[in-house]
Amino acid sequence: MRQDAVVLDFRTSGRDLLEITGDVRRWVAETGIGTGVLTLFCQHTSASLLINENAASAVRHDLLRWLDRIAPEHAGYAHDDEGPDDMPAHIKALLTGNSLTIPVAQGQPMLGTWQGIYLAEHRARPHRRSIALHVIGE
């Protein structure tokens, strides 16, 4: 049994879903672990991780619009220390989650045909986001 871990940093351009599948696939392949389990963890409270469709860009836009309706800005939140997008970003991160667990086979995450891994930036302005990756297996 072997394991490896790394923190990958990404620059976001504001509220968006940034596909990070290629970066994750490259790192898993570099570890040399063929079969195992991959865990990804977002080290932030106003960004998150998700797996969703990566073929139609309309899906990403629809998801972002839906999240904006669920957690709108200027909704009377007590917490607005960093601006009107601060508390909505925390709610969106809570709803979408901070970690993913993906099986690994043949040295690659076992994603479905149309699945991609996304870093969800919930803040309006650009940020540098850190995602911790850990893989364990053989």
Automatic annotation (TrEMBL):
Alphabetical list of InterPro entries matching this protein: UPF0047_YjbQ-like, YjbQ-like_sf
Pfam family, one: YjbQ
Domain of life: Bacteria
Gene3D superfamilies associated with the record: YjbQ-like (2.60.120.460)
Transmembrane segments: none
SUPFAM superfamilies on file: YjbQ-like (SSF111038)
NCBIfam families: TIGR00149_YjbQ
Family: Belongs to the UPF0047 family.
The name this protein goes by in its record: Secondary thiamine-phosphate synthase enzyme
